[in-house]
């Protein structure tokens, strides 16, 4: 009867009233250190990558073509090929060994990057990092293991914060230490530093990642308890309440079965998982597009649609963005989630894409008419502020993905999400940098076609975001 179904759903989805569980400080600190090291290594190359590609002489001296060779997408393509396997392995082998493999891969790849002298050597180093990039999904899985519904907003609020710290220090290190024989000739005058002008920032960031490897090895301890997985055939797993086996057996003894171990992959394609991952993908696509487009816009000469800034200034700007993001997260994210809910926080953050992509052509037009005036710098600050608000969407969507995943298959669901996101992040930078160059070369909409395209795509992303439920799902056992 319809009434019976409504009563059953109400029982299964009844609110949980529990005191906030304290976060395990040591294990949380280890996860946050890993989260800091990842962007520290990956984003330290952004201030000088366009200059490096230009110096390799593969553009034929045409700066308008640099965007075509911004090769960050290769990392995400190789990551997409392996991240699901690493994440599924973490469900069976544990989180710690997979985290160690990921840190080893990041250390090796960044050192190889600094020692590369050809374009294809750079490509190989980034592909190596992508293939061994196990941590991007496992970190979120480990955070889900450490938290529950009562403290998850606080736990996931830390992830963007420490990511912002790494994202601010990385560009600062990359921009400050690149070409040390030019900037600090009294300390780095040897031939080695002339032959490998970008090795120093890679050495510094690689050392931090290696330190994280040893911290995880000696201090990270994961739960060893066996997880019992309730599986209900007539209802989506997202309707089953966390940690209440007796209630489930009493309410529906004929339809609830219990089994151990990760669920088969095909059983994870349910609406809560699909809608959560889909929104994560659109957010990551737009965010990665912005991350690739911003340094390219800052580096390109004013006459071809950029601001013509040197690497050290680009590093300072990207560092400021990271600091702003971190401060905004620590001050407001958990409060926003408790007051407005995960859905509203996600949608509000995603909406910032619309003004962000509008401001790029405005900054360019002002710079062309009056140079780098105070108005341009104010608008750059607006872009950074809106980007900080945009990043609150990540914490919110992480919570949707975590709540949609059965506990025994959290690694697999996070692997699915990161595989999808890696593909989106591979397309985003390649599409944005290439479309930037294409727009400028052919003077499409005055060279500003790229921003119109991503403005429209942001609108479609918002249409998908409103499909998220008003209330987040309960944890699935």
TrEMBL record:
Membrane topology: Multi-pass membrane protein
InterPro entries linked: MFS, MFS_dom, MFS_trans_sf, Tet-R_TetA/multi-R_MdtG-like
GO cellular component: membrane
Domain Major facilitator superfamily (MFS) profile: 27-473
GO molecular function: transmembrane transporter activity
Record field: transmembrane: 98-116, 155-178, 198-220, 268-294, 314-333, 345-368, 374-401, 448-470
Keyword Lipid biosynthesis annotated: no
Keywords for this protein: Membrane, Transmembrane, Transmembrane helix, Transport
Protein name: Major facilitator superfamily transporter
Organism the protein comes from: Mycena albidolilacea
């Amino acid at each position: 009867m319809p009434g019976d179904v409504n009563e059953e759903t109400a029982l299964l989805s009844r609110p949980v009233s529990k005191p906030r569980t304290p976060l395990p400080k040591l294990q949380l600190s280890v996860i946050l250190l890993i989260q800091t090291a990842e962007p520290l290594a990956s984003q330290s190359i952004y201030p000088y990558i366009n200059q490096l590609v230009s110096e390799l002489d593969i553009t034929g001296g045409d700066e308008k073509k640099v965007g075509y060779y911004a090769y960050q997408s290769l990392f995400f393509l190789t990551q997409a090929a392996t991240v699901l396997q690493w994440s599924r392995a973490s469900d069976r082998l544990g989180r710690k060994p997979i985290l160690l493999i990921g840190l080893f891969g990041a250390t090796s790849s960044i050192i190889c990057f600094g020692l590369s002298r050809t374009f294809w050597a750079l490509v190989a180093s980034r592909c190596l990092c992508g293939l061994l990039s196990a941590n991007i999904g496992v970190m979120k899985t480990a955070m889900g293991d450490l938290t529950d519904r009562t403290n998850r907003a606080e736990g996931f609020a830390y992830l963007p914060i420490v990511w912002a710290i790494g994202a601010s220090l990385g560009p600062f290190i990359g921009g400050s230490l690149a070409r040390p024989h030019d900037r600090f000739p009294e300390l780095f005058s040897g031939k080695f530093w002339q032959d490998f002008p970008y090795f120093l920032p890679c050495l510094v960031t690689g050392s931090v990642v290696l330190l994280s490897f040893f911290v995880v090895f000696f201090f990270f301890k994961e739960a060893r308890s066996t997880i019992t997985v309730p599986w209900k055939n007539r209802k989506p797993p997202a309707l089953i309440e966390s940690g209440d086996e007796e209630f489930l057996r009493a309410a529906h003894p004929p339809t609830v079965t219990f089994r151990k171990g990760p669920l088969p992959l095909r059983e994870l394609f349910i609406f809560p998982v699909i809608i959560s991952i889909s929104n994560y993908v659109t957010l990551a696509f737009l965010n990665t597009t912005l991350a690739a487009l911003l340094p390219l816009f800052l580096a390109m000469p004013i006459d071809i649609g950029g601001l013509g800034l040197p690497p050290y200034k680009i590093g300072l700007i990207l560092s400021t963005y990271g600091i702003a993001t971190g401060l905004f997260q620590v001050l407001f994210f958990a409060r926003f989630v408790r007051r407005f809910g995960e859905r509203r926080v996600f949608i509000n953050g995603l909406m910032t894409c619309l003004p962000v992509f509008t401001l790029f052509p405005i900054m360019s037009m002002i710079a062309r008419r009056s140079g780098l005036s105070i108005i341009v710098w104010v608008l750059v600050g607006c872009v950074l502020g809106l980007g900080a608000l945009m990043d609150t969407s990540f914490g919110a969507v992480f919570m949707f993905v975590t709540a949609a995943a059965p506990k025994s298959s959290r690694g697999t669901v996070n692997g699915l999400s990161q595989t999808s996101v890696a593909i989106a992040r591979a397309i985003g930078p390649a599409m944005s940098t290439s479309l930037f160059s294409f727009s400028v070369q052919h003077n499409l909409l005055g060279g500003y076609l790229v921003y119109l395209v991503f403005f429209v795509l942001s609108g479609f992303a918002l249409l998908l975001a409103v499909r998220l439920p008003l209330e987040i799902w309960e944890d699935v056992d």
